[in-house]
Amino acid sequence: MVMKRFKFAAVGAALVLSLTACAGEGAGSTSEETGAAGGDGGEKSVGVAMPTETSERWIADGNAVKEGLEGAGYTVDLQYAGDDIPTQSQQIDQMITKGVDLLIVASIDGTALSSQLQAAADAGIPVIAYDRLIRDTENVDHYVTFDNYKVGVQQATSLLVGLGLQTADGAEGTATGPFNVELFAGSLDDNNAHFFWDGAYDTLKPFIDSGKIVVPSGQTTIEQAATLRWLQETAQKRMEDLLTGSYSGGEKVDGVLSPYDGISRGIITALQNAGYGSGDSKMPIITGQDAEIASVKLIRDGVQFATIFKDTRKLAAQAVAASEDFLSGAEPEANDTKTYHNGVKVVPSYLLESDIVYADNIQSLLIDTEYWTEEQVASGQA
């Protein structure tokens, strides 16, 4: 996957500098001390467990973390688990057996790693939860992520903007509705899915209560809206069922809350197969997340309305900074020590900011920052 977004100045210097610019330096570190001079990792090794290679987002995260850590002088064991829980458990077991000095884990199921993390704790191996909180264990030491409740707020906000109920600057829109909207959520075993849902639903609820938004299916709980493993095919099937069950009398879908671009594309396929987007039938307002290149092109083409940009370069940089702190005996910087309770304890966290991508800011948010190139956006391929 050759993309400009992996320009880390060959040895990770730019990775750390981007962190310094956007997120502050880690505790006990300066920009000169966190790999900008080539790193001083010695013989230490880091195990990086990522959930899947079926999403370009996780490929980007894995590559960025690996490049940053190697630039700082560490040996890296990067593994993808194909969205299979036993495989990820086995991979982490193997990393511990091989004697890694630190683990970075983006879990498939945040409740399924208790025995592995106990083994890590017994071996004195710190654990960083990457983007997805690991639950029901005391053996997770740090969490790097985005402000996931705010991501949900942004998703709902983009839906409201698209419907005309609100303006991009937060003012009341001119539209009055009522609008038919259906709600999708992520996978229930991913802790982030609940934060996304809470932020989005809290934002939409006043409009639902006032009648400006109607959910014809009546499916307004996260359990009803969930999409196991965030799969595009699962979302497409549910959207097809919704159209058959709740829109068979000629009613039209005006908007769909989607928490992830892959889910969005499944929804879009179902809608297009039902005739939306052709002739006089407009495509509903559809949200997303992760700024995947196929969806960015759909936004530019007027098919998908918006997505949420979570710059994985910043997240990887923060994970690298936290890793260097742990491996040098320092305490990583946390900017949130209250929000992320994993069922056993509050996990010290570092939260990053995200942005709403509309058609009119693709250039400034994604191309000018070299996350995607103009050619990639035009083709929809990385």
UniProtKB/TrEMBL annotation:
Residues of the Periplasmic binding protein domain: 46-329
Q: Which UniProt keywords apply?
A: Signal
Where in or outside the cell it occurs: the entry states: Cell envelope
Tell me the leader sequence span: 1-23
Question: Which GO cellular component does the record give, naming just one?
Answer: outer membrane-bounded periplasmic space
Gene Ontology MF: a single term: carbohydrate binding
Q: Name one Pfam family in it.
A: Peripla_BP_4
Q: What is its main location?
A: other
Sorted alphabetically, which InterPro entries does this protein's record hold?
Answer: Bact_Solute-Bind_Prot2, ChvE-like, Peripla_BP_I, SBP_2_dom
Record's protein name: Sugar ABC transporter substrate-binding protein
Q: Which organism is it from?
A: Cellulomonas cellasea DSM 20118
What is this organism's lineage?
Bacteria, Bacillati, Actinomycetota, Actinomycetes, Micrococcales
